[in-house]
Amino acid sequence: MQNYNYLQKILHGLCLGNNLIKKSLFEVEKLIYYKKNDLIKHSNHVFISGLPRSGTTVLLNFIYESKQFSSFCYEDMPFIMAPNIYSKISKKKEIKKTERYHNDGVLFDLKTPEAFDEVFFLTINKRDIEKEFERFVSLILKKNDKIRYLSKNNFNYKRLDFLKRVFPKSILLIPFRKPLEHANSLLNQHRNFLKIQKDNSFILKYMNYLGHFEFGINHKSWNNSENFNLDNINYWLEQWLLFYDNLYKKSKNIKNLFFICYEKLDNQDYINKIKKRIELNLANDFIFKKSHIEIDQDYEIKLLDKANVLYKKLDIESDKF
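and the corresponding structure tokens:
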């Protein structure tokens, strides 16, 4: 995205911003490559979903390193709806690992997995979405010759029941983080992307194409809010509370849903529990450095107190593997 030329930007607009073209690509892709496979339907796929800045990307990259999973990667852009066709015609060069726009030290190249499957949900009609999602996942699995799918999508929190209907044995991982630090990180990224999108209009279009509304000019709230000032940490703190409170209540009725505590990701015993639960065959130790920044924000004490009570409940749940 950083170095796209004019033609590349036009191509992304056509392949990601035009529903007719996206649907047409998908139909051709299915016609050539889709074949029903009941094994895929009943595989234990892994779906990661939570608020951004909670460790979702770290978990995604760690699990993907096992080479047991297929996931959409940067090399699939912009033909997300036709990954097999694109893999046959594309001639992509290796690119040097680059730090992403978040400025958080996370590097990526063409082989790096990323949250691209929201493109599907922005494209397909609701009446067809359940049957078509199984086909969509099957196509990326075929491309990479795998039977387990790995997805990080921060908006899948609103379709957990749907995921379990389509893939009954799937595993849902919901990372969470200490609320004040998490809210501060969200606020900082919002400010970061406001500047980036104002300086480069294509980045705003790109994020709209992919359904990334977490930060910046195109931000969409996860829940209705009493705080409307997005430049105030209390907005993000309230979003944290509403988001995880809803998931905590909903989790009681969803099988194989597990909360993952960000603050415990540097504990190898904890990582081993996660690996065992998702049947992850990966010998390498997980090296994780927690981010900690001093917070100089005027936050509501009562709001934080409520969030901290919920955090303790989530922390208890996060040990129940």
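(Above: one complete record from the training split.) Residues 179-199 form the longest helix (21 residues).
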